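Thread: Newbie trying to understand structure tokens

Hi all, I'm a second-year student working on a class project, and my supervisor (Dr. K.) asked me to get a predicted structure for one chain before our next meeting. I've only ever worked with sequences, so writing a 3D structure as a token string is new to me. If someone could post the tokens and maybe explain what I'm looking at, I'd be very grateful. Here's the chain:
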Amino acid sequence: MNLDLDDVSYGVDGTAILSDVSLSVGSGEVVTVIGPSGAGKTTLLRLAALFERPTGGALRCDRTDPWALSREDRLAVRRRIGMVFQRASLFETSVARNVDIGRRIRRPWPQRLRGFGRRLADRLVRDEPTVDDRVLEALELVGLGDAWDRDAASLSGGEAQRVSFARALATDPDLLVLDEPTSDLDPRNTAILEQAIDRSRERGHGVLLATHDMHQAERVSDRVAFLLDGELVEIGPAERVFEDPRDERTARFVRGDLLYDDNELLA
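---
Reply by user tm_fold:
Sure, no problem. This is what the structure looks like when written as tokens:
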């Protein structure tokens, strides 16, 4: 899926949150959005995942405006997008069932019922739980292939976030939208998820990532976008943005300077 935002704006009750933002994410490309807290990164990602509708401009998925489609057709587009939030939200069941739930709810009801019947029959014959190959593959990509039958409540915070990532991967999305997925993780869990991002790129998935970790943005990104006060200040190849930014505000931000409320960066 190719995602294109052309002069996209978003506001609530007369308050502008995003103003005239233009960027694109192609297949097999990682685009990372950086910027201070409150810059509008999460809102931008929610628009990309079709959770919110732009109040201005145009958003297109493969050159089609999903908001011009019927609800059913728009839902079909949304099902091609996987989103991972900053904090894991798992159900009180096994790891495998947590990963598989995203795939199940995307199926029409007749397919869901047939799948339930197959799982029930399989359990009665085998007298033991089994795991779907795609679920197991997604768990292996995040280093949890041997944890599929564990209770989700037994996981550490880092493991739970990796399960959330696997749940998105199991749907085989065309576009992954990741909202600071490693912000609360230790270096080991962070490295595992970054490897999963690389594997997603290799598989041709587009990835739109928001992060506060500048080193992570340098490591995983093809292009980096700097968002400030709801406006896109700069976007370009990761190496160029970090080593030779075109805008002084970008240069000061990537150096780690603080930000005043009036958007004046400390010298």
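A couple of things are worth pointing out once you decode it. The first helix runs from residue 41 to 48. Strands lie at 3-12, 15-25, 30-34, 56-61, 81-84, 175-179, 206-210, 223-228, 231-237. Feel free to ask follow-ups in this thread.
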